[in-house]
Amino acid sequence: METRKDGKPPFKLAIIDLFDAYHYADFFEDEWRYAWLTGGYAPYSSYEKVVALADRLFGALNPNAKTQPEWYEWDAGYDVRIYDADLACVYKAHEKLPKSLPIRS
Fold it and tell me: What pLDDT, on a 0 to 100 scale, did the predictor assign at position 101?
């Protein structure tokens, strides 16, 4: 997925159990498997600020993930995604992780 800066504010953050993020990312059913962060009385309207928050949350929830394969190997972490006012996914924090580590010689 390409990062889209054309999303329509206000934005919402979704913290998703990794099993759901990997297998069922298009819909949310069981409330205990995800959490929405909406900004409450001060909704997130700046794309750059909400991306920075998503990246910080992702790092805090997955401190040992160094690559995408390490992150999803055991289905044991969390993904953080940003949705716009139309509930279109405009950002996935895990995509900042490299697909693999460089080979050292």
Answer: 66
Burial of 86 (0-12, 13-18, 19+ CB in 10 A): exposed
Question: Domain total for the chain?
Answer: 1
Query: Residue 72: which residues within 8 A CB-CB, separation 6 or more?
Result: 18, 22, 94
Q: In this structure, is residue 28 part of a structural domain? A: yes
Q: Can you tell me which residue has the tokens 């909400």?
A: 50
| DSSP calls for 77-94 | SEEEEEE-TT--EEEEGG
Q: Is residue 80 part of a domain?
A: yes
* Contact status, residue 8 vs residue 70, Cβ threshold 8 Å: no
Torsions phi, psi of 42, nearest 5?
Answer: -120, 80
> Which segments of the chain have a pLDDT < 50?
1-3
pLDDT of residue 54: 92
